[in-house]
Automatic annotation (TrEMBL), chain A:
<feature type="transmembrane region" description="Helical">
    <location>
        <begin position="202"/>
        <end position="222"/>
    </location>
</feature>
<dbReference type="InterPro" id="IPR001516">
    <property type="entry name" value="Proton_antipo_N"/>
</dbReference>
<feature type="transmembrane region" description="Helical">
    <location>
        <begin position="6"/>
        <end position="24"/>
    </location>
</feature>
<feature type="transmembrane region" description="Helical">
    <location>
        <begin position="131"/>
        <end position="149"/>
    </location>
</feature>
<feature type="compositionally biased region" description="Basic and acidic residues">
    <location>
        <begin position="462"/>
        <end position="477"/>
    </location>
</feature>
Automatic annotation (TrEMBL), chain B:
<dbReference type="InterPro" id="IPR039428">
    <property type="entry name" value="NUOK/Mnh_C1-like"/>
</dbReference>
<dbReference type="GO" id="GO:0050136">
    <property type="term" value="F:NADH dehydrogenase (quinone) (non-electrogenic) activity"/>
</dbReference>
<comment type="function">
    <text>NDH-1 shuttles electrons from NADH, via FMN and iron-sulfur (Fe-S) centers, to quinones in the respiratory chain. The immediate electron acceptor for the enzyme in this species is believed to be a menaquinone. Couples the redox reaction to proton translocation (for every two electrons transferred, four hydrogen ions are translocated across the cytoplasmic membrane), and thus conserves the redox energy in a proton gradient.</text>
</comment>
<keyword id="KW-1003">Cell membrane</keyword>
<dbReference type="Pfam" id="PF00420">
    <property type="entry name" value="Oxidored_q2"/>
</dbReference>
Automatic annotation (TrEMBL), chain C:
<feature type="transmembrane region" description="Helical">
    <location>
        <begin position="6"/>
        <end position="22"/>
    </location>
</feature>
<dbReference type="Pfam" id="PF00361">
    <property type="entry name" value="Proton_antipo_M"/>
</dbReference>
<feature type="domain" description="NADH:quinone oxidoreductase/Mrp antiporter transmembrane">
    <location>
        <begin position="121"/>
        <end position="402"/>
    </location>
</feature>
<feature type="transmembrane region" description="Helical">
    <location>
        <begin position="323"/>
        <end position="344"/>
    </location>
</feature>
<feature type="transmembrane region" description="Helical">
    <location>
        <begin position="125"/>
        <end position="142"/>
    </location>
</feature>
UniProtKB/TrEMBL annotation, chain D:
<dbReference type="GO" id="GO:0016020">
    <property type="term" value="C:membrane"/>
</dbReference>
<feature type="transmembrane region" description="Helical">
    <location>
        <begin position="39"/>
        <end position="59"/>
    </location>
</feature>
<feature type="transmembrane region" description="Helical">
    <location>
        <begin position="107"/>
        <end position="126"/>
    </location>
</feature>
<dbReference type="InterPro" id="IPR001750">
    <property type="entry name" value="ND/Mrp_TM"/>
</dbReference>
<feature type="transmembrane region" description="Helical">
    <location>
        <begin position="500"/>
        <end position="519"/>
    </location>
</feature>
């Protein structure tokens, strides 16, 4: 059965490479992408059902490195089985959806290949039992995120967002690399079990664990690395779904879960994690409420939700373990994927992702409407959807942590969790109201939402921002039944439509079906996903009291928003002062801070170039100049005058005599 | 064996005078004389050293003769060159920067023909 | 015998090519046969570990001792195979500017002969002689076949820098070698390594190590000695840049392993802090320079400085892992730099310059066959796992974090942190280039796109990409090759 | 106490053959004055003969010493101190006036071959005979005489022979320079003359001091030892004898200074560029090669004697070597005239030649001789190319620009030049130059003179810069077109047949250079191992 474990990683990786190499033809690319995703799902299911509980599935053989053991093993247990399955499932849904979503994009083949590679990276992190392999998967995800976010590289905003996403996570990866190196040095091995069981080196351990936390903070978008994630919405919606649902941002949770044994014993590292997570979840949830763009709203909600997972790991007592965190990871994977796919569908309908443009369009398809409803409800934590269970398990774990004597970090987390529950419910309600309330005037789409328009204007004025709303009108604009060519569609690369008319028609019917199926499947999983968690110890543990409190909070927040929006007649966020809202849309200057940092680095780089030219390189040039000058001076003194030569001779004799006689022993 | 110091000191004085002459004189012939003084110092030293007991072959004296002979040959060549120089340049000043401009046109590969004519 | 022939094939072919009339067309045949023959023979020699050991210059005790071992096989194969690639690349391009093609090919083959000799030599002085062989042909390549869009003075400067820096380095190295040989009584590297510098006092070891490291550090190039590299790379023709980056720079690090680490281990250990600091300064310095560099070839050259900094850091660690990382990093950089210079060189050939500030059509759309290898190349340059350079850099960081006993741990760990920052900077410049060239930032979609890669040149680049992926996925292929002999080199340290 | 010197004609052949050549040339000129090439042919044969006669001394192996004019006997130096081995005791053995070891024989061989090349370069370019003057036999005779002096000095052991031979090697060269009688030639000759006169005077003083210090008219170990022991054991003697070691050292530095002139060491070098540039290529070649061989041979005679004293490295040599290298290279960097460039390169290379002598050990001597011969071989090729080019394009051939595009026009000649220049620069493909560098640095390392080695390393860079200045136009085609465009078939262009001798010399010397580049042992082996 070990081949299943390996194949789970290898199949999507091969699919990714094959997609790159063979992806000239769209049907082949589709086949490879969806087929590989399906195969992976089946394999992951098999592994989950019958986990090997072994930690030494060999891959390519250990690296011969003398004093460092690098076995490069994979691991198959219940945790990796479940998470792999969920990841594979979500990826399958996204791949299926993508076939529809990018039906006219001539870059579909590389995109699908990128998604496959991305999945391979995530699955490698999940299956890995070796820190090096973890890092490999980790970095591959980062790279694929760059490719996917920058998919529409014609647009400056997409290019910038991709660059920003990769750079920010890469900066955090500095700490990740150092952390992993530190952990492996302790054990003289990169093997996960060896690292976990190594008892010595406490000081180094804390350092390493904190470094890993920082690395995780980068990929998971914890403060202060949070700002790349909303910008990453520049990518096509399936890419956003992929990054936000089950893979990249959640990978940090998984890595920390794998190292939980070490974290459980290390209060300092967990405190750092707790503080970062607590700040992030509240901050992001707050920002989400004010967003004018559906995808950005979802992005901020992702930040907040991922922080919840990590908070679970930070606060849960050792006895509870990783269950709450992983449970929320899985639940979030389902509903967030659902929300993004739904958002993409909506955007395809209205040609924009701005909430103002979408007003009421959630009603245009019943599946879409209910899908969004389920997704938002799950996000808010409404029972009995999966979000309710997982989130309340986290709250419960945090409360248990307080009881367990965790002190400060558990308190911080618990307080932040309740605040987040309140805020989450608020922004979910606001979004739902915006999507589901038909606009008052039948002609204008945007008239009724003056407030949000103002905000968009504010946002548009900020030239530094890449996320100019006007630039974001690039989702498939027409309704799905009559797909026209996109404006930037390159005729050379286009499918030969005319020659294959029947196939074209068949496609026209088939493609929306794929979309519908994937959204429906995810909706179902969002409803029933809690069942999956039954197999994972500790991932479902809802306390009565905390559940009651959170439900009351949700209801209260929802009601308040409903009231504030005058029963849906206007945007609830209009109650927020405009300046605050504009700041929220702009991420409160985080982007400017990043840019300032970047400019500082560039300034240093310019200094380096100047130094390189004028200082480091000055010596060779000075040497050359001196040589030439000396030569010139020499030529002047050598004018073939015999007496000068004589003086030279006599002076030389004196010199030699002095040197010779004095140095003689 | 009488004191060797005196002849040696005389030789030193001679050599010093010779070097002074070489350095101070602009005229080539006078420089030649300076060189002769140094050579005489060498000769004096050789003869002095040769006077010591058991110095066989009379090496000191013999080598002195050698040096005198070589010096003679040297001077002859030197005077020949100086003579030609005087005819060509009109002076024998050693501190002058030599005039290296090409001579009167002559067939490139057979330069020097006229030189010998002049020397005769 | 076969080993001698291996070195002689390119040498003789080079002479034949030089003697050839500029209009002759047989140069194609000669160069191809010679390079392919040498490559095949290199594989045979490496596989069978053939060697030759006869007296060459009896008076100096210099033996004609050529033998491949685990430390050098990878480099030998890289050199031989890459030369085939360079020859093919030259033959399938426009006729070179500045001179006849046969001269260009002759220089390439002469460089190959010198590099092979360097990697095969098992005699310190023979190593030195072979080390010098590459200089004049490379000088001709830069001076004569260099970028003809630049003035003659610029070419003279670049070529002069290359040869003057390197000659200074190699003469310093020679002084170090002579010290070593005089005090140890032999120039045979095997005997020298086996002697473990037992007879040398510590001070002498440090002095020899300092001379060797300075001399070879110029070739590597280590940080403050690197200023010849960008100029040379920028001006050199594609063939020259590829050989320079992929082969010549490796001679420096290989020399450090073969001459310094193996023969004066204690001296290198004493100097390892300096080596590490210069290495990481190079990482940061090169990376930062890349962030604002406008000339693409120059940028790749600065990235070479950064990558070789990691190799230096790995060497400074003194551990087995470090040595393995250094050797792997060497090969990795060889492949990546070769790929990047091939792609960039081809682009420059069509663009006329490599200035990033010029608005051009993005490669992603107009010339994907250029674009994809470029993406792969820069992905490798930033150390992406799954591609070959990741292993060298990660292992270098690991090795420096836990160095051999007796090294300054705190300092090396600080270097690791700084080096890791260098990884982030690498991401910055790699993506900057891709954003501009591949994705078309500041580009001009209406600009005339470049002709896409095709034919042999495409095959060449695809092959290099393949090698990058294969070695990136399976680093064991290389690591196993050098494992035993790396341990052997470190024998003295271990004891 | 003395015996009549034995005389071995075969051993003396290296000196006798050129002398015989002198006589034959003069006689032949009387008998058949018609053929201009004839004296050169005879002289070249005599040079080759001299070289051939030196071969037995070379191949005899390290131990073989060919000596003649030997006499058994002894004489007192200063009065022997008690316990110190006296010179008279040592002299129970034989002392020979002519003593050519492998070192000396190899230098004789090199001098003979180099002289033959010079003669070939001097070959007249016009067939027939000019009526009035007979310059050719004079020139040939002067060449041969100077060669004789060089050959003799390499084998001389006594002060008299040494001094005479040294001047015999110098004076004809002055005449050779002056022979053309042009203003330039006179200026060059004057430079050469005054410096050589003063140097000779200093040499004579140095030799006299040696005699005074040791009491022996020989440059031999025993003589040096005698002086050394007198001072070390100086218990019995009066204070007057005490400073004999100081005298010895003073004599040595004077000799060094005197020979420094002939080797063109800074600061005795001032004559070099003028004399080279003002004479014909053949004479310049002779100055650059045979004269240098003679000078080094003379120096080695002294140093060999000194080796017995196990003296430490000579700082004076080190300073001269460093100064010569540096100044020579710096000045060469500014030259556009190839002969001047080669002249300054001679200065620089002279520094490399004496560099190994910081160690007076046999290793140092051997290394110096090896380096000198590599330099001679490379310089011969370079001058042969210059001579050939001058024959082709006249005096324009003296500027580096004239070599633009040589690679394209004449790849073989360009190859030879490239080989020569890279040999001088110490870069492959001139492997022999590289090996020479190794050889020259080795004694420095043995003595532990790191600073000197580092200066040498810096000068290696400067040297490369110098020779690349010339090599650049050779390989650079952009200047080829310019050169080709501006190249009229000038009046200096002579018929092809007249360049045969030069071509042969070029081919011969280039082949030697090539062979020793491939197998340096052939050159190094001359001196034993």
């Amino acid at each position: 059965m070990t081949w299943v474990v390996r194949l789970i990683v290898v199949v999507p990786a091969i699919a990714g490479l094959a997609g790159l190499l063979l992806g000239r033809s769209r049907p082949i690319a589709r086949g490879i992408a969806v087929g590989a995703a399906a195969a992976t799902t089946v394999l992951a299911l098999a592994q989950w059902v019958a986990p090997l509980r072994t930690a030494d599935v060999t891959t390519f053989g250990a690296l011969p490195l003398g004093d460092l053991s690098v076995p490069l093993h994979l691991l198959s247990d219940r945790l990796s089985g479940l998470v792999s399955f969920v990841v594979a499932l979500v990826v399958l849904a996204i791949q299926t959806y993508t076939v529809w979503y990018l039906r006219d994009d001539r870059r579909y083949p590389p995109f699908a290949a990128g998604v496959s590679l991305f999945a391979a990276g995530m699955l490698l992190v999940v299956q890995s039992s070796d820190l090096v392999l973890t890092l490999v998967g980790w970095e591959i995800m980062g790279w694929c995120s760059w490719l996917l976010i920058g998919h529409d590289s014609e647009r400056a905003a997409a290019r910038r967002a991709a660059y920003k996403a990769f750079l920010v996570t890469r900066v955090a990866d500095v700490a990740m690399v150092v952390g992993l190196v530190t952990l492996s040095v302790r054990a003289r091995s990169t093997d996960l079990l060896a690292v976990i069981t190594q008892p010595e080196g406490a000081a180094l351990l804390t350092f390493g664990l904190v470094c890993v936390v920082i690395g995780v903070a980068g990929k998971s978008g914890l403060v202060p690395f949070q700002d790349w994630l909303p910008d990453a919405m520049e990518g096509p919606t399936p890419a956003s779904a992929l990054i936000h649902a089950a893979t990249m941002v959640a990978a940090g949770t998984y890595v920390i879960a794998r190292l939980f044994t070490l974290y459980a014993a290390d209060d300092a590292a967990r405190t750092v994690l707790a503080v970062l997570a607590a700040v992030t979840m509240v901050y992001a949830a707050g920002l989400a409420f004010a967003q004018a763009d559906l995808k950005r709203l979802l992005a901020y909600s992702t930040l907040s939700q991922v922080a919840i997972m990590l908070a679970a790991l930070a606060a849960a007592p050792a006895s509870v373990g990783v269950g709450p965190g992983i449970g929320h990871l899985i639940g979030h994977a389902f509903f967030k994927a659902l929300l993004f796919l739904g958002a993409g569908w909506l955007a395809a309908l209205v040609g924009s992702t701005a909430l103002a443009a979408m007003a009421g369009r959630g009603r245009s398809d019943v599946l879409l409407r209910w899908g969004m409803a389920i997704g938002l409800a799950a996000l808010a934590g409404v029972p009995p959807l999966v979000g309710f269970f997982t989130k309340d398990t986290v709250i419960d774990a945090a409360l248990e942590g307080i009881g367990d004597g965790a002190g400060f970090r558990a308190w911080v987390v618990a307080v932040a969790l309740f605040a987040t529950v309140l805020l989450t419910a608020a922004y979910c309600m606001r979004a739902w109201l915006l999507l589901d309330t038909p606009p008052p005037a039948p002609t204008g789409v945007t008239e009724g939402t003056e407030g949000s328009l103002d905000v968009e204007a504010v946002a548009a004025r900020e030239t530094e921002r890449p996320l100019d709303v006007s630039e974001r009108h690039r989702e498939p604009e027409a309704v799905d039944e009559t797909p026209p060519a996109r404006p930037d569609h390159h005729p050379l690369h286009a499918e030969p439509h005319e020659s294959r008319l029947p196939a074209q028609l068949r496609e026209a019917q088939l493609l929306p079906l794929l979309r519908t199926v994937s959204v429906a499947a995810l909706a179902a999983l969002t409803v029933l996903g809690a069942l999956l968690l039954l197999t994972l110890a500790g991932s479902l543990h809802v306390g009565w009291l905390s559940a009651l409190v959170s439900v009351l909070l949700i209801a209260g927040a929802a009601g308040a928003v409903w009231a504030a929006s005058r029963r849906g007649a206007r945007d609830a966020a209009d109650v927020v002062p405009d300046r605050v809202r504009a700041g929220a849309v702009a991420g409160y200057g985080a982007d400017a801070a990043y840019a300032a940092l970047g400019r500082a680095v560039i300034a240093v780089a310019r200094l380096v170039v100047v130094l390189d030219r004028d200082v480091v390189d000055a010596y060779p040039r000075a040497f050359a100049a001196t040589a030439h000058a000396a030569g010139r001076a020499g030529v002047r003194t050598h004018r073939a005058v015999p007496s000068v030569a004589l003086i030279g001779v006599v002076a030389g004799v004196l010199l030699v005599a002095v040197l010779g006689v004095t140095a003689w022993r | 064996m009488i004191h060797l110091q005196w002849p040696v000191m005389l030789a030193a004085v001679l050599a010093g005078l010779g070097i002074y002459g070489v350095l101070a004189r602009r005229n080539a012939v006078l420089v030649l004389i300076g060189v002769e003084l140094i050579l005489n110092a060498a000769n004096l030293l050789l003869v002095t050293a040769g006077t010591r007991q058991d110095s066989l072959f009379a090496a000191g004296s013999v080598i002195t003769l050698f040096v005198i002979t070589v010096a003679a040959g040297e001077i002859s060549i030197a005077l020949a060159v100086i003579l030609v120089m005087f005819r060509r340049f009109g002076h024998i000043d050693l501190t002058a920067v030599p005039d290296l401009t090409p001579d009167a046109p002559e067939p490139e590969p057979t330069t020097g023909v006229q030189g010998e004519v002049v020397e005769r | 015998m076969a080993v001698t022939i291996l070195v002689l094939i390119p040498l003789v072919a080079a002479i034949v090519l030089f003697a050839m009339a500029p209009s002759a067309t047989a140069d194609r045949l000669v160069a191809l046969v010679a390079s392919i023959g040498a490559a095949v023979l290199a594989i045979v020699v490496s596989a069978l570990r053939l060697d030759v050991d006869v007296m060459w210059i009896r008076s100096l005790g210099i033996r004609w001792h050529l033998a491949p071992d685990g430390v050098s096989i990878a480099l030998i194969l890289l050199t031989a195979l890459l030369t085939v690639g360079v020859v093919l690349h030259t033959l399938h391009g426009p006729p070179p500017q500045g001179g006849s093609r046969s001269t260009l090919l002759g220089c390439v083959l002469l460089v190959e002969a010198g590099a092979l000799g360097t990697f095969l030599a098992r005699d310190a002085l023979l190593f030195f002689v072979a080390f010098e062989v590459v200089l004049v042909p490379m000088w001709v390549l830069i001076r004569r076949f260099g970028d003809h869009h630049r003035t003659d003075a610029v070419r003279a400067d670049a070529a002069g820098r290359f040869i003057f820096f390197t000659v200074l380095g190699s003469t310093l190295m020679l002084i170090g070698i002579l010290f070593l040989v005089y005090h140890q009584g032999t120039s045979d590297l095997d005997v020298l390594a086996a002697a473990h510098a037992d007879r040398l006092s510590h001070g002498l070891q440090v002095a020899i190590a300092a001379l060797l490291l300075t001399g070879l550090g110029i070739k590597v190039p280590l940080w403050p000695l690197h200023t010849w590299l960008p100029a040379a790379h920028t001006i050199a023709p594609t063939a020259g840049s590829v050989l320079l980056a992929a082969v010549l720079l490796k001679m420096g690090t290989y020399g450090i392993v073969r001459l310094a680490v193996a023969n004066v281990p204690a001296g290198v250990a004493t100097l390892s802090p300096v080596l590490a600091i210069l290495g990481v300064v190079g990482v940061i310095w090169g990376g930062l320079a890349c962030l604002v560099e406008r000339d693409l070839k120059r940028l790749v050259a600065y990235s070479s400085v950064a990558h070789m900094g990691f190799v230096a850091l790995a060497l400074a660690s003194g551990s087995h892992t470090g040595l393995q990382a250094a050797l792997f990093g060497n090969i990795a950089h060889g492949i990546v730099a070769a790929l990047l210079f091939l792609v960039v060189g081809d682009l420059k050939e069509q663009w006329g310059s490599a200035d990033l500030a010029v608005a051009r059509a993005s490669l992603r759309d107009s010339a994907p066959r250029f674009g994809v290898p470029l993406v792969f190349g820069f992905a490798a340059a930033l150390g992406l796992p799954g591609l070959v350079s990741f292993w060298g850099e990660f292992l270098a960081l690991y090795a420096a974090w836990s160095p051999a006993p007796g090294r300054p741990v705190a300092l090396l760990r600080a270097c690791v942190v700084v080096g890791a920052v260098g990884l982030a900077i690498a991401a910055g410049y790699a993506l900057r280039v891709l954003r501009i060239v591949w994705a078309g930032e500041g580009g001009n979609p209406a600009a005339t796109p470049v002709r896409d890669l095709r034919g042999v040149r495409r095959g060449l680049i695809v092959t290099l990409v393949g090698a990058m992926v294969v070695l990136g996925v399976g680093p064991q292929l290389l690591l196993h090759l050098s494992d035993l002999d790396a341990a052997g080199v470190l024998g003295a340290v271990r004891r | 106490m003395t015996t009549t010197p034995g005389l071995d004609v075969v051993t003396l052949l290296p000196a006798l053959i050129p002398l015989a050549g002198v006589v034959i040339v003069l006689v032949a000129d009387l008998v058949v004055p018609r053929f201009r090439g004839f004296p050169y042919a005879l002289a070249a044969l005599a040079s080759l003969g001299a070289a051939g006669a030196a071969v037995p001394g070379v191949v005899g192996g390290a131990g073989a010493v060919r000596e003649t004019f030997c006499m058994t006997g002894g004489w007192f130096a200063f009065g022997p101190g008690p316990g110190a081995p006296s010179y008279s005791q040592a002299q129970a053995a034989t002392e020979c006036l002519w003593r050519a070891g492998t070192l000396g024989s190899s230098l004789q061989l090199g001098a003979g071959l180099a002289a033959a090349v010079c003669l070939a370069l001097a070959w007249p370019s016009v067939r027939g005979r000019s009526a009035e003057v007979s310059r050719e036999p004079v020139e040939a005779v002067l060449f041969l005489t100077a060669l004789t002096g060089t050959v003799v000095v390499a084998a001389s052991r006594d002060l008299g022979t040494w001094l005479v031979a040294l001047e015999l090697a110098t004076l004809p060269v002055i005449a050779l320079v002056a022979l053309s009688g042009t203003r330039a030639a006179l200026a060059g000759a004057m430079q050469l003359l005054v410096t050589s006169l003063v140097s000779f005077a200093l040499l004579a003083v140095g030799a006299a001091l040696w005699f005074l210090a040791t009491g022996a008219p020989f440059f031999s170990r025993d003589a040096a030892l005698a002086a050394g022991h007198v001072s070390q054991g100086g218990t019995a003697l009066a204070a007057g004898q005490q400073p004999s070691v100081a005298l010895l050292s003073l004599s040595l530095v004077l000799i060094l200074a005197g020979l420094g002139f002939k080797l063109s060491l800074v600061p005795f070098h001032a004559w070099t560029p003028t004399a080279y540039a003002c004479s014909t290529p053949a004479v310049a070649t002779f100055l650059a090669t045979v004269s240098k061989v003679g000078a080094l041979a003379a120096l080695l005679v002294v140093v060999q004697a000194l080796a017995a004293l196990s003296t430490p490295g000579l700082i004076a040599v080190a300073v001269l070597a460093a100064a010569s290298m540096t100044l020579g290279n710096l000045m060469a960097l500014r030259q556009d005239d190839v002969v001047r460039l080669l002249a300054w390169s001679t200065v620089a290379q002279a520094g490399w030649v004496v560099l190994p002598l910081v160690s007076v050990s046999p290793l140092g001597q051997r290394s110096a001789a090896i380096y000198l011969l590599t330099y001679v071989a490379a310089t011969l090729v370079a001058f042969a190319v210059v001579a050939r080019t001058v024959r082709e394009v006249g005096s324009r051939g003296l500027s580096t620009a004239a070599y633009g595009g040589l690679w394209k026009r004449s790849p073989w000649r360009a190859g030879a030049l490239a080989l020569a220049l890279t040999s001088l620069a110490g870069l492959p493909p001139g492997v022999i130059g590289l090996v020479g560098k190794v050889v020259a640095l080795r004694p420095v390392i043995v003595e532990g003179w790191v600073w000197l080695a580092v200066i040498a390393a810096g000068n290696a860079v400067l040297g490369v810069a110098v020779y690349l200045r010339w090599l650049r136009p050779v390989v650079n085609p952009s200047e080829a077109e310019a050169a080709a465009a501006g190249e009229p078939a000038g009046p200096g262009v002579s018929p092809t047949g007249r360049r045969l001798a030069i071509t042969m010399a070029l081919v011969g010397s280039a082949l030697v250079l090539l062979v020793v580049s491939v197998q340096p042992q052939l050159l190094l082996g001359l001196f034993g191992s």
